[in-house]
Batch of 4 targets.
Target 1
Amino acid sequence: MSIIVFAGPSISIDDIKHHLPDADIRPPAKQGDIYIAVQEEPKIIALIDGFFERVPAVWHKEILYAMSRGVHVYGSSSMGALRAAELDSFGMVGVGEIYQQFTSGKLEDDDEVALIHAPAHLGYQPISRAMVDLRQDLQRAHKHDFLSQAHAQAIEEQLKSLWYPHRTPEALYQFAQPLLTEKQLEALKHFLGSNVISLKQQDALSLVKKLETINTTTLTAKQVEYTFNENDAWQTLINDVENEQQAKAANLFDVQAHLEKEAETDNKLRGAALAQAKQLGLSSQPWIQPAFKKIATEWQCIDEQGAPNFEQVSRILHSLGTTVTQFNQWVEREALLLAYCEYKGFSDEVLVDRSFRQFKPLQN
């Protein structure tokens, strides 16, 4: 293989495949993934998306290792832009406006590009919106006279003060509401809602298009001016990665075999998965919204904009005789299972309930 791309919410698989049909597209990178990829001897590794919180992030030393082994490493849009700004002096190539803003010092915080998103089987659909994109929304709104400079600045400061999973277009409109008339607010919503532009997506696409122009057949190995030092910390990473791979292989028979069955998974398997998730210290919180949206989608309670329709969900709950407390408990369990499946790299088609129309709360 010549090109490995780590991507998720910033750019769709279809967009990557359109320009790089032979690329090996992988989920957002976590610590150890770059090291594993290097063992497959690609010529190029493109880092676009990567995990920030739930699991350890891609380590700088992995990228230095990759380049020392002759692999060309590019970064853009999200985690890739951040790492490229930190490692461009060593030879990592950054692409895009976000990368430029990090290198210039205009951006400093990791959470500028962070967001929460749905799992792989839902196409990594963004649930929140990155601060870099919200800031661009405000700048565009000011440029087109939907917001004054003072109002745009005030809203930006309020959005920046939020924890990144809570940064959404809805939050932007909530902060704008006291500053605008009802008519002005509706005009702002219409403008931003009908002209959705993502700087992260634009930068990711710029990188993919750049890679499209490279002839990997004649591409020579990356040359670096540093000597890679395999210290104790590096050996620890290698050991951790190899142990994790062995553990996954050991679980493949007794867990993955169940996941691939067509039959519904019983409560024992789900209970075991939940117990493991708790032992691993996984958090359901980042997955609450994806789990709820998954349920709403299966129940066909989605509006024209693709957002859950809470009134329709409430009507179904009422028809099922289900209390809000029971439903919330179920959503939390499903969210924890999504976190577990994502952590383990398993399909969640069976572990997470498929019979959403027949709500059955798990037994404690």
Target 2
Amino acid sequence: MTVSENGERAAALTLTSALVGGITVVRVTGLLDATTRDQFADYLASEAEEHGPDMALDLGGVTFMDSRALGLIVHHWQLSTNAGGKFALIGVEYAKTKVMWITGLAQRLPLYDTIEEAIAAFG
């Protein structure tokens, strides 16, 4: 648990989104694990329903990711592509998302260093 200077508990996961060139970019900050899975799942489903299947997840602010969170990301990747959309992951750091490399999914998922690169790949 993280506690701020005024003694309040810090949120384990913060999710924000913006439309960039018609693509939903979700910024993820904090933990992606069993304690935040439902919050993450609900947010992604809501964004996809409201804005369509083109989605990019900015994972630059992720402090840790477990296999359940990775499974959820793969699920949304599949939903997006099956609906004719495109999907991208941005700012993925090995040290915080090791499970992506351990499973071999880092070689299969569409990874980009920057939002600009991901948006350009959407064409």
Target 3
Amino acid sequence: MEILKLLLNNSDTIIIGMLTCYLYDKIKNHSNGNKSDL
């Protein structure tokens, strides 16, 4: 159960990190006027 909890916590962190990076990229590209795809 502890391993499952760790995996769930890590997956949450990874997902949040990916979302943050994605949103940051979108905002940065929008403010710069760049249209670069990931």
Target 4
Amino acid sequence: MDELNSFNRSDESYELEGQGDFDSNFHSLPDYGFSNFMEEDYQQSPDSDHGLLNNLRLDMASPPIHTCLEEIAKLERITNEDLKRGKHKNPPSLASLELLKSHGTGFKKLTGERIIEATCPVQIRPDRVRLSVIEIMRIAGVKLVHSASKMNEDNPSDIPGHRYGHHCSDLTGIEVKNVHLAENLMNAVEKVSNEQFENASSLLDEIDQLCSYTGEPVERIVYYFSEALREKIDRETGQTSDKGLGKKLTIDLDKVIMGPTSQMLACHRRIPFSQILQFSGVQVIIDHVMDARRVHIIDLGIRNGCHWTVLMQALASRRHEPPLELVKITAITTCLEKDIAETGKRLESFAKTLDLPFSYKILSGIIFYVLINGAMFLTKVIMLLDMLDLKEDVFDLGEEEKESVVVYADFLLKTMISKPDRLEWLMKVLKSINPCVVVINEVESNHNSPNFVNRFVESLFYYSAYFDSLDECMEDGDDGQNRRMTESDLFGQAIRRILAAEGEERNIRHVKIAVWRAFFTRFGMEEVDLGMASLYQAELVVRRFPCRSSCTLDLDGKSLIIRWKGIPIHSLSAWKFQQPEEEKYDDSHL
């Protein structure tokens, strides 16, 4: 683990690398309407030290983007008959980046066999609805691959075996414009990766004439990616342009997420992702403390407290034996005291709707009290300036009375990927506590590669899916305004950090569940089933939303994956530490 502690942040980056393959232990859930899937991740040698924060040089060359996009066509030309004959036992590797195995082809498991679904998701009909943002990006990628291969550049319908085929000629005028925008964006990225900054700037000038943050979804996402590329060029050339560093955003993302802003509440209300994670995650907790009298929940980042309103509601309905005596929540946060006080007010307001007495006090930390059916509900908030200040004794685990300890990590771990010493410290402290379950919510995408082109393609498809969900779920009027604020304040700045920043400034780093799975193994963590009740909760939440046909739920191993039109968005997983009673964990080095 030396590579976690000895690094020079000025010239190195770290990428969690995981090992992935088709999961032969996948279990379907037909009763609850889950669509089964198989997802390919990074291929890695079994004897490699996987799951690490490996130091990777930032100055490594980015491969041409068309070599990445060529993998779409390669994968799509693999037929079911090829698989049955064993012609493609080893799928084509993504030499330039992990791309479009998930974006270009759908994987399903049917009747116990692994097959690749060859049907085209873009069925062009005279009465069809407009193509999604994701589909536009796929078509643009296909055309770029075709152009780079010098095959019939002006007639993409002649691409042999290509699944879009003649449909490209059926695009509407707006769709043709959107595909052109996306093509120019991809070409600009390749110019930037080759340090052809003047050519890239010229392409971005053309893009700026055709896109706007108030336009079509494709226009909007291209607008924010164009801004990020401008900033990237400024950083590389030492200049400051009006659309690059001169327009650099200074919004505190953590503060926006923490507060009860109108856009955050609108997203929570209109888009199913956060409610799926909250209801399913709380159900996992309830399942693991079903027979406990005293429950202690360690919340790694209380954020805006929405998830605990779900817990309060669940506990308020508990009627079985043994009676619940105490629920204690210790929330770890680096937010300001006044922001936490606002969280207390929101919890107090919600408790009143359930006829639950609730009060909070600001002491050495901040403590909230609520009485639920005779049981004390106690929340203590610990404010830390640095995760390295975290010690086991701050949790006050109550040795006199046995407590069932649960850890809930809601999008916290990703914030420490750029600080591996903090992440490792946290894991060691949690292992010393040995909770009965650890529930983790994370982003399901890889935005942590040191390779610029890699980060671009992954983030392009991820945020294309998110922009598409915002467009479908949040209509005009107040919701439209909240959507624009979300795209600008949250996603626009995140895209800039992913693409333009390096070192510690690049603090938006996401990795997939396969990577976390490999990393957790180092600390003796074992993945556990979420439970049928939790999965059923997820399905019930999806059914409540008008966009339910676009939001699908799948399993990767034992983890729940939330997808939007096939693109992975979030993961929910549960873990336990494998720690025999006779093992005495030495924390003297912590």
